[in-house]
Amino acid sequence: MFLAFLCGCTPRLGRSSDERVIAAMTLEEKVSLLVGTCKDWNLVPEAAPATRHREPVPEGYWDTYQGNTATMRGKVSGAAGVSYAIPRLGIPSIVLADGPVGLRIDSVCTAFPSTALLAATRDTALVYRVGQAIGKEMRYYGVDILLAPGINIMRNPLCGRNYEYMSSDPLVAGQMAAAYVRGVQSVGVGACVKHFAVNNQETFRNGIDVQVDETVLRDLYLKPFEQVVRDAQPWTIMSAYNKINGVYASENTYLLTNILRGEWGFDGFVMTDWWAEEDPIRMQQAGNDMLMPGTQEQIDTLIAAVRDGRLEETVLDRNLRNILRIIRKCPSFINQGKTNPDNTDLHQMLTAHAALAREAAAKGMVLLKNERALPLAPAPRSIALLGKGSYDTYTGGTGSGAVTKAYKVVLSQALTEQGFTLDTIPEQRYLSHIRHSRSVQPQESAWFMPYVSELKWTKTELRRMAKKNDICVITLQRMAGEGGDRQLVEGDYYLTSVERNMVMDAAETFHAEKKPVVLVLNMGSGIELTDIVPYVDAILMAWLPGQEAGHAITDVLTGSVAPAGKLPMPFYERYADVPSAANFPSSDGDPNKVCYREGLAQPARTLFDIGFGLTY
Ligand code: GLC
Fold this sequence. Notes:
The chain is of the alpha/beta class. The protein has 20 helices and 18 strands. Helix 5 (124-141) runs antiparallel to helix 14.
């Protein structure tokens, strides 16, 4: 081998043509490069919750918890996947890591606002900057491909991953995603647009068969992907778990080769979603170039298939050409795997990115109602701050879209910093309740958010607060994430009676003192608000605003940043008004299929329409 290299006989990536490099590969090397190296990793399962939550939790809450999760230890600890290296041919392994709201590895990265919030900014320059910032953190840590953005259409408000997606409107989703991808790739790392295609729910996502009309498929669900491919040339695409009209997306030649490459000119590589269990042979033939995170079984299947003639080796070569073309662009190839090739000062970078996270979060918040309540008059002003979310503000959702962040700023902290005086009775009661609730549950992790119930307030307590304070601010929050959809139950899509009474009783008591009530929504997408909207004087959709949550919400409440966000999806008066309501998450009582019978239908009526947003 070494002599061959000396005489220049052994080709090397970047110095020889990709054709020559592929021709020099053994069959085992070819297949190993087409399949991720997860098989070589020590899977370190994170502990599942030792005990279920002791307090009653809303029905369906635990459905979102995925139980044992495996943290793969590879080249960059906590990264989602690594490709196979062939050093004798100059081919390094490349590192792939999540996710849409920030780099998800074991090291500290910036938790940016949810991508639904970014889409609400309608500010492509800002979204580009966020993408670029994530790209810089990738270069620092040695990650080559970011498994983001997720751009599946928000077909239904119950989809558990709406916080990681962009919009229910294909043009908004495509435009914002293209800016995001251009931002990431502007610093020489790659994006991976996902999940291609029609992965619009989490329920039975690995097997559901999406039945959708060709025109609707192209004009609505594929449109954002087409725009991103044509406008931003993403290095990679991730195929979805589900079936489309009977054929798995990852085995779908019509989708992955005819449309994606033939019509749109995509020239990167396609990878599977993680642990997609479809047939490796059919996936390779369809144009699903890389199987992630990779198993020995997939390798064995492909080698055997080539040897017994069920799979043409030319198919492997075609897919390898797509992969090598991208590897040659990756920092792991160009910088030979050296991390921090730009000699970046980590603290300086994370400080700058925290400021960007705060700026972006404030700009994407949507003012849904304001009757002489906002902006808050300059401090010092006394606030009766209610709602557990005011003291334990959610920054992002759960699942692969979570981020290992250094800190989070909650609303109570930020208001205090701004000189507001918080009523100590609710403050102390919430802090104690949150501490206790968390103490009896497993630690918060990427896949699990401890449940905290809402506190009850009597009218007597509220009357005291109304006399003592200048204003009441209430935060309602919801958690959601990968692996499960939200439920049509109180505490999820519907308000609990405790929440409803808190808002209505606060309104009655504060309005009796001619003082306003402001509602802050800390969630990834809408809930049914209709009954309480008339009671409050202002409503701010704060989304899941990232690690700078409290600062960004306060910036908008005080008017130091005027709200400019526009809803990227409608808020509905009633769930029945959602066009897909009759067909979510399945159709005709058959859990194996979902029919997109609503087609391109728009909601008959909305509480707040897509594009709605007030300012000061
Ligand atoms: C998942 C998700 C995908 C993510 C991947 C790697 O199952 O569906 O969005 O990028 O695994 O974590």
